[in-house]
Design brief:
The protein is about 40% helix and about 15% strand. With about 400 residues, it is of the alpha/beta class. It folds into 2 domains: about 5-255, Type I PLP-dependent aspartate aminotransferase-like (Major domain) (Aspartate Aminotransferase, domain 2); about 260-390, Aspartate Aminotransferase, domain 1 (Alpha-Beta Complex), CATH 3.90.1150.10. It is globular.
Length: about 400
């Protein structure tokens, strides 16, 4: 499968068939496994082979298929599947950090990611320095000889600020720091994060990977030595593993991810161009627009503007709420990467725990809405969004 194109990998990669040779991957809904003898059980706990299992928290055939398929998609050596996107973020960070370590993180993060780097890690003695992720001089100033890792969202939630993975990786690697990238908005379809220098890549597979709003999941990808030697022991002992049913559902999602994400990104580009300059909008934030300050980086790093837009409405929260309530096709929810288009008001939902001053510092104003573009007809979406903007 390593020599096949991504769509082929996502249909066939990592498949393990039972003796019945089923076409669709089997769900192994079992928490334990039977040994042929006491000696085999003893040996299994000492050293397990690639298809030898002990307990579902440690590994499962259905989950292993998902992990292998994700590694093929991302171009990583290995992967560990987690119970949720935040379990993956937490596991990627806490599996390798301890009291006295130093982490440098971009400050523009999803609200729960901010909670981990600002509240949880310092509570256990990890020193955290926050920087403007788009400012390479800020990274250079913050990364020190004792820095253990750097962490950032390659495209931030919800303001779509990009971080130059290759440039930050060079700065971090010069000090032997590990580069951990949350790649959710960039998607594994457009990502080349491993090639660009990321050591560890994290996804909330709840988003584009499932793609249809069904299950929570996450995945941590990287070199096999790190995934099996650092991440796996932490995750299997702290209980953050993915369930077999979730893995099966998300394997089905991977079969269509390339088709879905490319269609979503094409619609997002068309929507951004159609609504840009509307009187109800202060601005349209979309990395695929020529006027976006990081459009060159988006083309170089992803080859696409992605599936997400951020709209800043004139009139603050009142205008934003009028816009949300006037939409007929686009749903109000806080998920993203779904087949259905979804809109969110971050200031009152995903980032509501932050102070107004902190939100302003991150560029999250009361008039900002985040739009995740689905796979509906592009013209229908443009009509719906324009009508809602006209209503504002």
């Amino acid at each position: 499968m390593e020599n096949r194109k991504p769509r082929t990998r996502m249909v066939h990669g990592g498949t393990r068939r039972s003796r019945w040779n089923e076409v669709s991957e089997a769900i192994f809904l079992t928490q334990g496994f039977v040994y042929d003898s006491a000696e085999q059980a003893e040996q299994r706990f000492v050293s397990s082979g690639p298809d030898e299992y002990i307990y579902a928290r440690y590994g499962n055939p259905t989950v292993a298929m998902f992990e292998e398929r994700m590694a093929l998609l991302e171009g990583a050596e290995d992967a560990f599947a987690a119970a949720s996107g935040m379990a993956a973020v937490n596991g990627a960070l806490t599996s390798m950090l301890k009291a006295g370590d130093h982490l440098v993180s971009a400050r523009a993060l999803f609200g729960s990611c901010l909670y981990i780097v600002e509240e949880i890690l310092p509570r256990f003695g990890v020193e955290v320095t926050l920087v403007d992720g788009s400012d390479l001089d800020a990274w250079r100033a913050a990364v020190r000889p004792d820095t253990k890792a750097v962490f950032f969202e390659s495209m931030s939630n919800p303001t779509l600020d990009l971080v130059d993975i290759e440039a930050v990786a060079k700065i971090a690697h010069a000090q032997d720091a590990v580069v951990i990238v949350d790649n959710v908005f960039s998607t594994p379809v457009f990502s080349r994060a491993v090639e660009q220098g990321a050591d560890v890549v994290v996804y909330s597979s709840t988003k584009h990977i499932d793609g249809q709003g069904r299950t929570l999941g996450g995945v941590i990808l990287g070199q096999r030595e790190h995934i099996r030697g650092v991440v796996e022991p932490y995750m299997k002992h702290t209980g953050g593993s993915m369930s077999p049913f979730t893995a099966w559902v998300q394997l089905k999602g991977l079969e269509t991810i390339d088709l879905r994400v490319r269609a979503q990104a094409g619609s997002a580009q068309a929507i951004a161009e159609a609504i840009n300059g509307h009187d109800a909008l202060e601005k349209v934030i979309y990395p695929g627009l020529p006027g976006h300050p990081q459009s060159d980086l988006a083309r170089r790093q992803l080859g696409s503007g992605g599936t997400m837009l951020a709209l800043e409405l004139v009139g603050g929260k009142e205008a934003a709420f009028r816009f949300l309530n006037a939409l007929e096709i686009v749903l109000i929810s806080n998920n993203l990467g779904d087949a259905k288009s979804i809109v969110t008001h971050p200031a009152t939902t995903t980032h509501q725990r932050l102070t107004a001053e902190r939100r302003a510092d991150l560029g999250i104003g009361d008039g900002l809405v985040r739009l995740s573009v689905g796979i509906e007809d592009t013209e229908d979406l443009i009509d719906d969004i324009l009508s809602a903007l006209d209503a504002v």
